[in-house]
Design a protein that fits this description.
mainly alpha, 9 helices, globular
Length: 288
């Protein structure tokens, strides 16, 4: 995430939201396949472990449009998440900066990133991830939900407001870790390149984002798998979801869906940062 101290808050909010929406739409099929791999079938047996086979089967039996089931929920969540993330990171970063020098050590960057992830999870990510996952899960089985808004109404009627926050622990753990690892890795790479006088441009930003996405994926995949299990159409407690993953596949089950999530995060980092910079460059002159 760029650390531009002079970027107005409104520019950060709008540019971050636009970037998050574009990134979500462009990479959603990866997210869809990853979620399907992590969910259980009605009988309780694990679904196919091959995400590419999942995509092939979905297209063959449900059509290409099915790959975007739940996409609107994720797009709205990404717009809110990245808008909040870009807006809040600078404010949180100031709180963690050295009071005398204003400098940010790698550890302070990690802590600021973790706090930003918690904020994003609370106000944007958990509810929208809950709806997205419930829609994907429901499409395989009962097919009760007609749309994202219908899913919200049904979940609210059956579980109350609390139902929108099923999986909050796993989602927050994932967001805190993902933001910390992405920020930490990205800034370490950027500082290293600056020390070697490597030019910062779209290519280096995309490459740095891709590497940061790879590190983030492997480090936070267990939390992502746990989150998905708790946010299925029927919902599940965190402990029950943890036990079901161990029962199905053992410890390695926590890394199910890594291939497709990795495919998404490698591209998403480059897309997110590139679009953010372009939109911010367009908006900033209008506010000066």
């Amino acid at each position: 995430m760029p650390t531009q101290d002079r970027t107005p808050p409104l520019v950060s909010l709008v540019a971050g939201g636009v970037a998050g929406g574009v990134e979500a739409i462009a990479t959603y099929p990866f997210e869809f396949a990853k979620t399907r791999v992590q969910l259980r079938t009605q009988s309780g047996a694990s679904s196919s472990k091959n995400p590419f086979l999942v995509v092939t089967q979905v297209v063959r039996h449900e059509g290409v449009r099915a790959l975007y089931k739940g996409c609107s929920s994720l797009v709205l969540g990404s717009i809110a998440k990245d808008g909040v993330r870009f807006l809040s990171f600078d404010a949180i970063k100031k709180a963690f900066a050295d009071p005398e020098t204003g400098a940010m050590s790698p550890l302070r960057n990690l802590l600021a990133g973790m706090c930003t992830g918690v904020v994003a999870s609370t106000f944007a990510v958990t509810p929208t991830e809950r709806i997205k996952t419930a829609l994907i899960d429901d499409a395989r089985n009962a097919k009760r939900f007609r749309s994202s808004f219908h899913a919200v109404r049904v979940i609210y009627q059956e579980y109350g407001f609390e139902g929108m926050y099923h999986g909050y622990a796993g989602t927050t753990l994932k967001q805190a870790g993902a933001t910390a690892f992405r920020m930490g890795t990205y800034n370490i790479l950027k500082d290293f390149e600056k020390s070697r006088k490597i030019e910062q441009n779209t290519f280096t930003n995309f490459a740095n984002g891709a590497v940061a996405g790879t590190v983030t994926t492997y480090a936070t995949q267990p939390a992502d798998t746990l989150k998905t299990r708790t946010q299925g159409a029927k919902g599940a407690g965190t402990i029950d979801a943890f036990r079901s993953i161990l029962a199905d596949d053992g410890i390695k089950g926590f890394w199910r869906g890594t291939t497709m999530r990795l495919g998404r995060t490698v591209f998403s980092g480059g897309i997110l940062f590139t679009v953010y910079e372009q939109v911010a460059a367009l908006l900033q002159p209008l506010l000066e």
